[in-house]
Give the backbone structure.
Amino acid sequence: MSSSALARNAGDAARSSSDARLSVEQVSYAYSANPSQAPLFTLEATSFQAKPGEIVAILGPNASGKSTLLKLISGALAPLSGRILLDGFVTHSLTPRTRAQRIAVVQQESRLLFPARAWEFVLQGRHAHSRTLRFESEDDVIIAKNALAQVGAADLSDRWMDQISGGEKQRVILARALAQQPLLLLLDEPTLHLDIAAQVDLLHSLRRLAAENRYTVVVVTHELNLAAEYADQVVLMQRGRCLRVGPPAAIYQRELLEQVFQTPLTVALGSSGRPHVTVLSER
Amino acid sequence: MTQVSIPRFQSAVCVTVAAMLCAAPPLLAQSASSATPAATPLFREVTDEAGRTVRIPQPVRRIVSLAPSLTETIYDLGLQDRLVGDTDYCDYPPDAKTKTKVGGAINPSLEQIAALHPDLVLMAKSLNRLETVYSLDNLGISAYAVDPHTVDGIISSSKKLADVLGAPEAGDLIAANLQRRLADLHHRIGALPPKRVLFAVWTEPLISIGKDTFIADALRRAGAVSIVDSSQDWPQVNLEEVARLQPDYLVFAASHAESVAPQLDALARLPGWRIIDAVRDRRYAVISEAVNRPAPRIVEAIEDLAKQLHPEAFAEKPEAGKEKPGKEIPPPPHQSFLHLPLDIHSSSSEALSRGGCVCAR
Amino acid sequence: MRPLTFRRLFFQCLILAVILFVVVVVAMKFGAVPVSLYALGRDVLRFLLGQTSQISTDYGLILWNIRLPRILLAIIVGASLSVAGTSFQALLRNPLADPYVLGVSSGASVGAILALIATPYLALPPAVSALLTPMGAFLGAAATIAAVYFLGRREGQIDSTTLLLGGVITASFLNAIIMFLLSTVTSGNTRGMAFWLMGDLSTSYQKSVFWFLGIGFFVATGAIYTTATDLNLLLAGEKEAMHLGVDVPRVRLVVYIAASFLTGLAVSVSGSIAYVGLIVPHIMRLIFGSDHRTLLPTAALGGAIALVFADTLARTVVAPTELAVGAVTAVVGAPLFIYLLRRGAS
């Protein structure tokens, strides 16, 4: 089982390791664009843990290594050092199929080469659970239907993917991820192309789903307030370094955020009890 | 259906279908040799000019020719009654056009050939495709190939063919006839210096003939030598090179000289061609298309060319229009210089249309 | 929501199989030599009952030894090209991909030309020398498959864009070699070669060739079919496919080798027949959708139907002269493709 050494936690109670579903342990990554050059460190050793039902936000400005960290967690990249454990299994060493049964990644957009209907799209999520040359079973169909219902997109079932709006598409993509019945849900900047209502809607759904289905959710974002409002834990990144891990209250300190985001701001306590950031206009 | 039995049903159907489909092609493609009648008892094995061993049923009663030159040769041998099929391009003698057509030389219809139940299919290695040979082999139809590269080769080829077809006397007759005429020609012009010529198969682009072709050899027999020295059969020639070599004559092969006349005139007006003296001075020789076919008729074209290039050797011309016994009627005389009137209506054309043949008399 | 079931797939294939059967019957009837349907039916019955000796010898040879094998060849070649085309379109994520885009047919043509040039110099028994051209073509195809594979790798795995680039460049290079060979070769029959390059089903092959084709087709198509759902997901994007559980490098390798093998099979016996591998997948996609579990078998059947039809035209339109079947598919296929393009754009 995992042992953790969280050096940079501020004010968090000792967690019992058996609670943690996701354990990121001293994970780092580097790549060299050119074999003759020295490798560029995109991510220095980072660690955090997450429990079932928790939403973790990886927060930081551009080029802070957020996406790299997410890719490492998803198994798309192998860490240079350290390891990532999901319920005790090292994610990178799993086969793609097994990994897809536990980890679902929600992309920002989906470019389909040939048109497909929403239900076909969602059914793709069942691929990891079906054997070769098996046709979808009734169970698969039920799970897919449920997934669409859970994101409130049941009425989109028969629509063509290229004919629905961005927000609707995002919901269908999320439904596909849910159809995988994963333990871990990863989202990379999911709010990027959505309007405000859709953004709130999405994160609200995530919180509900995480609670109902006991998912662990990791969201990469640079939206300060959304992260503050919905995340249980925040991993603050800057230029490939993890500066701090903790609940929003511990992370949202004015000096720290100003240093990371390079812009004057104020932090106040919002009505929900969560911190709220106001970015100040220039001079 | 429960979930468990679906995969079994699926796989059962799939395996059955796959097995059936897998076995079908070879089963259906098997030669229906059991459907053909008992093979004729007599066979003769010969080696053809492509080096293949051919089993020929005896006697050879039904022949299909896949090359116009071979069709002509069959008529020359007097065996045209045995010819049951030829290609779309077999047009000489005119009676050849009445035979059942089996398609082109490189794309004949196997079905049509098979429907004629030939004993032997004749092919020319330089004209027909290797795949046709293999296909005929696969169907159990004998195919004999000729491949002459010289005028002597054409004569010996015809002789061998006559022997293969069971008519050696006709072959000997033709060979003797042609050899005599060539010897006579050599007697007249053998001592004369050969004229340097360019034989133009096509003008745009300029394509001539290679040194190893029978056409090149025919030119030599006619007292000419091709200025093109290439090992390819149909080399493309650079105009500048021709201008550098400045041939004495340009030689063209055409069915009717008058159809060629306007083209040759146009040639003299083209910038690239004007620098060639022979073009500027209109030193052309137009001979029959028979030169393109490796058949006995090529000797006529050789004689014709010799007369055009070395008229002084023929000062006392042989009696015009006289038919030598046992010899095919000569084609109408062709124009050597374009401004002279052309006479194509000779008495010989009538005899031509009847399809002259070499008969022992 | 109506997911694909085995029953639906079965019936879709059944319909196409029936159409194929009808087309085959029509193809058996028409040809340079006319055959009446009654006589055809009677002979089929006799054939199936094993009374082959009673089959009319008038046209028995023609039907069973020439026409039927040729139809079978058209079926296998058409099916192979269509499956290969479907696979390449998925593999390269490019609807314009056809079986020849990666240079396999050019390599096969070079191999065939070299075999034709070499034939006079090799003293082989006739049964073997007849196989020299298809074998040469197949070896040429195999060499090209290997070369393009190594060219198309990035960081040790096949990358779609690199593969496409490598394949296109290899195809151009090999085409240049073909031109060079055709214009300078002194021996061999280049006119016949040009005919072969256009795509032609008229050669009559031995039984062993059909065995090879049949088994090769089913093995390769079977291998591709096991990746059918993976291909569906690949169309959504490679990263996404991986996150959904597809072992992308393995699938790419299997599909690349199997589809190239199918192309090599087809080209080595029939030359490069155009448009079948490009258009049939699109038509089947229009009718049946993009699910590869349906698309692969229906494309195979559709390709067989298309090519039997085209070949029947090629050998009857100006009978007894034969058109190259590649010319027929091009004349019919190009306008059809333009129509599909415009329809897709609207």
Notes: The longest strand of chain B covers residues 43-47.
